[in-house]
Predict the 3D structure of the following.
Amino acid sequence: MNPVSREKIMKRLLLIAVALSLIILPVILIWVGYNGSGIISIEFLTSRPRLFEYGGIYPQIMGSVYLVSLCTLFGAPLGIASAIYLAEYAPDNRITQSVRFFTETLAGMPSIVIGLFGLEFLVFYLQLKTSLLAGAISLSFMMLPWTIRASEEAIKTVPQEYRAASLALGATKWQTIVNVVIPAAMPGILTGVLLGVGKAVGETAVVWLTAGSGLEAFVPRSLSSPTGSLPMYIYLLATQAHTVEGVQRAYGASLVLLIMFLGVSVSALMARNYYLRRLGN
Amino acid sequence: MMKLESLIEKALFLSASFSALIVFLITFFLIREGVPALSLNFLTGLEWRPGQEFFGTLPTIIGTLWVVIGAVFIALLIGVPTAIYLSEFAPFWVRNIIKSSVEVIVGIPSVVIGFFGLMILVPFIRNTIGGRGESILAGWIVLAIMILPNLISLTEDSLRAVPKSYREASLALGATQWQTITKVIVPAASSGIRAAIVLGVGRAIGETMAVLMVIGNPETPWIPTSILDMTRTLTSTIAIEFSYAEWGSPHQHALFAIGVVLFLLVTALNFVATFVIRRNKN
Amino acid sequence: MSYQINEELLRFRPKMAQDKVIFNDFNLWYGEKHALIDINIAVKSNIVTAFMGPSGCGKSSLLRGINRMNDIIPVARSTGEVLIDGKNIMGSGINVYDLRKRVGMVFQRPNPFPMSIYDNIAYAPLLHDVAEEEELDKIVENSLRGAALWDEVKDRLDDSAFSLSGGQQQRLCIARALSINPDIILMDEPCSALDPIATIKIEALMRELKEKYTVVLVTHNLQQAARVSEMTAFMYIGEIIEFGATRDIFENPREELTEKYITGRFG
């Protein structure tokens, strides 16, 4: 075969692979949307589950919202502070290198291992019980390295000239960071945090081991209440429901979860654009 | 003022050390709970019957390897050509659309992908190929979907990092674009692609929910002989059994020991990947 | 090659001016590299002093010695004295932040903060807590007037600084440097990223600024040094080869190296 016609065939094969990777997202979105939209109603979104397979998913929605908000409250400030240290202060020495190495190790840790650790350390050792607090803290362990990575990258892309200009005006290092570097890095930091939030919303294994079984039919009343969440609820119904109603609810909950996830992703993009516009770029 | 500045620096250093602290705590607590159950028999035993205190994980380890290797292979078959198309052929706007759509898949909750596998793939396999449907094959497909996005973007990055001058030199010698890609660009990017594969293997070993929902998880796992067999993975065993394991029992220690194995495997793979990437950069 | 030297500059005699910044045996190292070697010069007050020389000669490092911006480079260390108004700024009791409040700096490329025009100027006064809210408007206006930018931007102070042209951005950076009410203004090749018309405006501004401030200019542009500076230091590989009235440097260089550089026979 001559090289030119082989070239054509190869290009076709490439396009088949591209089509396969491209088709996954729309197929899953349409499948969930098609099967899930039928059951969505005000009642479904605002009432509690009954008899496992009936009723609404209000406690699961709120459980997910609480878990993720608390997780962000713990994880985001810590992650941003770590990133500031690594990007602005860290001298290039053994200590910094090992801090970086451990951050990467944490990023690569399977979520079930983080769940196991949360179960042993938070639930049993610190006696937080299977609860909202234990779940949120465990989730924040998972989110932390991603926030650090994204924020560090964002801080590092702030032009050195901004820092020089601020220091030359007599600002201290910290004043420069707070007033110039962080605002300039905000779009990247925000996007990073929101992507972390998106990850936390869909995380199942960690909340399974630390937050609750997913059957909880009530909104958590305190930090020590066991807390159901959408992913756990979907898992339980998908694998253990016996009725059409149960499966329908799994579709409905999946649709709500996907909308929450896409909502977070879209607001990540919008926040980035808003800041970029305000900065005049 | 200088005092405040150095206080702030110390506080920031403490925050940065927190990740390291968590890793230490994870290591310490996993080992404390898991090591009592770790033994040669734990790794080579064929029988997993918690009720009779048989904790052999060999079938589970082999099941995990089956699922992971197949999934990575499928992801490679689709992902590498996609990355080649993106970096070498795609116009700017096409590349943008594909990249962002692929990046959204990374975030899709794995439980939704598992649900998809359970409702669509499993019945499809059962009806067209046979078996129960819940199978290693279903695990391959679901897991391939999960690791595909990262594989594509890492591979594409390393292809794009190949200097333009290589392309020009090869094309100027009369090579076709395809010859240039296979003979020059892919080899030049190979260490980056190898790192992407190793990271993909690490991620696949650690993935829990999507796989768990489609592989059947038999009561007593066996060493699989066909891709239509049901099986278990390390992660699915922990997830399914932790709530039945009484705290402090040998069963609980055995589950933590699986956690130790997972932790060591994944950390080692990530270490290798970073090492390969670093060597490539220098 | 001939240089046009301003009438006004021709009349200048170094003895007419007071010393503002004095370098005494000043040395600077970046790690192993000896970047400035035994610098001994006096920068006079209320004139423009130019540091010129081929790139890498140390002229920017010398400029940064005046507001200790070399401190932010971890591997930099120095010996010797730098006196401003007779006080050694390298001494131990010196607050470097107070020092930088007295010495404004303008950089090679315009580097406004990603904020509004107003906020760029208000940044430092707010930081140093020197201004009440109502005074701030006044400071912003005065600084912008001082940088000859007020008339062009007074109706759009809330616009992003990036909406300005390159030349306007650089004048904004000059205004920002004026906002802290310094005695000395350091300019590190302030026109190298600007077009000729914007350059002419900045040079006119330098001539105005020296009425109130001591201006130190780093430039690789010989014509620029000849157009705006009363005194010029020619530097080469970390050393001052020749320092004197600009007229003398350009018309009667004492050193052969200077003459080579001036006449373009260098390297």
